[in-house]
Amino acid sequence: MRFSDFDALVRRLSSELPADFLEGVAEIVASPKSVPHPTRADIYTLGECIPLPAPAGEPAGGVQSRIVLYHGSFQNLARLDPDFDWRAEAWDTLTHEVRHHVEWRARAPALEAYDRAVEQNFARDEGEPFDPAFYLDGDSPVTGVYEVEGDYFLDRVVRAPPAELELNWHGARYRAPAPAGLRLPAFVTIEGVAEPPPGDLVLVLRRRPRLTDLFRQRETFTAVVAVTPVSAPAAQI
User: Fold this and answer.
1) What is this structure's pTM?
2) Which terminus of the chain faces fewer neighbouring Cβ atoms within 10 Å, N or C?
């Protein structure tokens, strides 16, 4: 898509947003720039919500923002994905950045915390060191389950590494022997469930947080385990 067409698309999508959400948004613009991720290949920043100083005459605590969508980043991702949907990606990016603005105005940090969770989940997926508590900033559809960009984390607090893994997923119960060398905290990617989520299904085993955790960092254990269904019925989660 040419820049002129992308700019027209951004303006058209902006006109579809509720006016209340745009209070304090100074402008929404398309930029020809590409913004690559500083360390990860094939990842680009598609948009940003940039805070601005409050204009003269406005209260000092007023929040003003400038929202930018980067055409060059969209182009680079489109080259990598033949099914890239320009309109859908532009809409998702625009509404994401507007949500940033709305939450800043409401002094609600949830979206920033979720963005940090996404970054840490990339590190996990790439086999790099990551914060073992990151998933707790994801969305939680039910108690004990957290979602970060299609990956689902089943949170289990245990006193010691178990000899056997058990979990409920989508109304079914599953079991598997614990992987060799299991230690806490552990991120065990689960394979073999009948109805898998869009991304990874990860069983997280951790101890209850303690004061000493502030002064030492534990190496995170990771493994992949294939589970088998258990015949007894289980409550859905």
Assistant:
1) 0.60
2) C
